[in-house]
């Protein structure tokens, strides 16, 4: 089944390693990172993650008991830091309960801040553990920035690579009968990208976006979708424009005339083999 506890160490937008309570293993998709950390230090990290698991579980059960709630719930935590160009170090810990903001840590005052009234019970418990809060402060100000300095050299090639996007344009009708043109852009790195729909050279502003989402291989994907007005389904002149640092210019993928079958569910597909302009 699903692990009770899992975590991932991210450096910018790249996963350095992943851990879960089923396997009790640290796994990295970047071989140089796995080799650099070494078996002895991996064992130390695993023991620390096991301890964090117990802390999280204890606090979750404490809060649920005090609030008299049961069944299945989940907590999420973002623990991270940023080292800026001027050397300034900024750290944060934020906690969510069932997907909603719950608590955040003030490392300067060694106290927790409630995002909702329901968090007060757990906030008081955490505030009283001054020794643990001092450890969190140490982690944010020293340990976390040290990890950045440690992992970056071994993953530098991952951050500096350029992966060209694969672009495909497709047509479909959704369950409500809307005629939609979708532009799927995938396999690109780094993350920043501009994807625009145009009609006869003019930008179409009424579009839906999936946002930029991660792929399993350290690249990204995004979908931009637009609704076709009644009467324009069979027309041409629609194009998906893609701008990315891996391209020499703007990649334009045009959509040709759509062939509708009787069911209205037929899709034509135009893939991004068009040269950039």
UniProtKB/TrEMBL annotation:
SMART domains: IGc1. InterPro entries: Ig-like_dom, Ig-like_dom_sf, Ig-like_fold, Ig_C1-set, MHC_class-I_related, MHC_I-like_Ag-recog, MHC_I-like_Ag-recog_sf, MHC_I/II-like_Ag-recog. One of its GO terms (biological process) is immune response. Keywords: Glycoprotein. GO terms for cellular component: external side of plasma membrane; extracellular space. The lineage of its organism: Eukaryota, Metazoa, Chordata, Craniata, Vertebrata. The keyword Glycoprotein applies. Residues 165-252 form the Ig-like domain. It comes from Callorhinchus milii. SUPFAM superfamilies: Immunoglobulin, MHC antigen-recognition domain. This is Class I histocompatibility antigen, F10 alpha chain-like. It comes from the Eukaryota. Belongs to the MHC class I family.
